[in-house]
Amino acid sequence: MLLFGTTKGFVIPQQKNILSSRILQSSQQPEEPPTLEKKEQKDDTTTLLVKDNEHHHNQLASHQEPSNNNNNEEEEKEVEGLPWWWEYIWDLDAMKPSGKTTGAVSFGDSANVFRTNIEQIYGGYDSLDNCPMAEGALDDLADGTMFIGLQQYKNTFGSPYKLCFGPKSFLVISDPMQFKHILRDANACYDKGVLAEILKPIMGKGLIPADPETWKVRRRQIAPAFHKAWLNHMVGLFGYCNRPLLQKLKAASESSSRKVEMEERFCSVALDIIGKSIFNYDFGSVTSESPVIKAVYNTLVEAEHRSMTPAPYWDLPFANELVPRLRKFNDDIGLLNSVLDELIQKAKETRTVEDIEELEQRNYDQVKDPSLLRFMVDMKGADMDNKQLRDDLMTMLIAGHETTAAVLTWALYELVRNPECMKKAQEEVDRVLGGSDRAPTLKDVQEMEYIRLCCAESLRLYPEPPLLIRRCRTPNDLPKQCGSSLKEGIEDSPNPHVIRGMDIFLATYNIHRDERFWPNANAFDPDRFLRPYKNPEVPEWKGYDPDRWRSSAQILYPNEGSADFAYLPFGAGARKCVGDNFAMLEATVSLAMVLRDFDFEFDLSKKTTDMDHDGPTFSLDHPVGMRTGATIHTRYGLHMLINERKQQHATTTNNNDINNKEETITQ
Ligand code: HEM
Description:
CATH 1.10.630.10; 2 domains; 24 helices; 43% helix; globular; binds protoporphyrin IX containing FE
């Protein structure tokens, strides 16, 4: 029996036409049922095996029934059958589920998910989760544009659907109400699962991969560090760190070729900003190269590579000694750790303990080291464990740098593609900054709403990351997908059920580009966030209302509340990004400074004719291409020709930028 076939490195089950009956049983009716090819059944093992399994499953999971018990006489089922040894494996102690419904998921719990999938596919059992199983060519999933493949499946199977990769399977969620449930209402039922496994060697128990128990303690210590006085001070720092970038761009505009690769430039400035703000370290990456900078980039590349690798080969015995790429990774991470350890040590040696209220009232203009690390070390009752501090710093270094660079890259890309929007953006910058060469203040950022909306629209079209990852610890039911209440016959169908150990992809990309929530969803239209929208075809969704965020001067961007979870640039619920305001301020300051001083056009000598990834919903026929790891990158770089703008002013370094703040912001 052929259990698995491979597609470009990923392993997917070869399914027979039992898929059709499974989809019919599901509560989630596909918008268009997939066409299925009828195949010959190979053997006659099915009836006997189903009987054995029935006995076993009565003990294990009372609600799973062999599908030949199903009352629907009309359903035609064919099953390939399970091998004779199948039952024996599940008698082994290691393969047994933990029997718990809370706490960390065991190997046996994950194995049980695998078991139920295989028994569904080959044994003819009903699905435990009531979700359709996606089937089709998985090419897009394997080559760095996985989120596009997942979007195509969503158009066929709805939300959620189940995707199997060899022993792994994921429920792919593309619905705002189901997002709300998982991220906010039932957050305690989930942890970071696969993501934590991948990131552990890099971020340890840092906030992003942290298990719920560690997270609770760490979030309480880190979140207050992003307080308003500190954010106000950071606006000045962002302007200060952008000065070397402007000088570099000016030099490029004066060169004979006028060529510049902007993705790389935005990455450098974002790295310099995060180094200074989080641990007062000057990477100076806009102007120079160093082994430490290279180590940061290599670590990022490795993190992304791991997120796209089906099996954790780095955990194999001796792999770290024998595989050259792992040896290199370990050297890089060793170098970064030693830099961070030194900074932590220094911060501890000059520690001045204060309680949170005192720290929040610090005059940051007078403080020698205004970094987040300083705050975390000085906080009364702080956890001073070096390893934990290092994990937190590494997490913020990685999480807070490429993401912001990607927002800037895609915002600039879309603005150049949409000259009307560019005109509007530059007019706003000129009006607010009044033709001066000063760096924007917080008040300016608050006034530059269109620039902020360009960043928000960039995040809608290119969410960073395009998928969030969770693993179920406590079994729970999901709400039915939006629009179900209008579909006949769906009231009595069961809700999707998430079993313990099940891995989840929350496909933010799918929601952000869904026409039901965002008409003309693939178009770059920052002004859409000024228009209220409600869709009668999805009555469960409250709609988007700009008043829900614009009525408060403190809220910088359209958030998940204003769009009833159809827009989640920074996630939502307890695990929402701690750096959201920091990132929006940073992106607005950087974009405004660059657009004030320069005009851009695509360097068409770099245009690609690569049409490998065009699909019904999205075409990549543009000069940059897309690929993804943790964030969505260009495939070929953002190559531009640059011109200094006529009404330009001197861009000399202005050390007052860092103190240049006039207003306050609350979190
Ligand atoms: C535009 C830039 C950014 C984007 C799009 C972004 C996006 C996100 C998203 C979607 C999450 C939720 C992940 C999940 O639920 O699994 C998250 C979490 C997080 N982000 Fe950001 N982020 C950005 C910038 C930053 C910055 C600047 C920092 C720090 C300086 C940061 C630090 C974190 C941390 C620590 C978490 C984990 C929060 C927790 O689990 O409690 N991010 N981010």
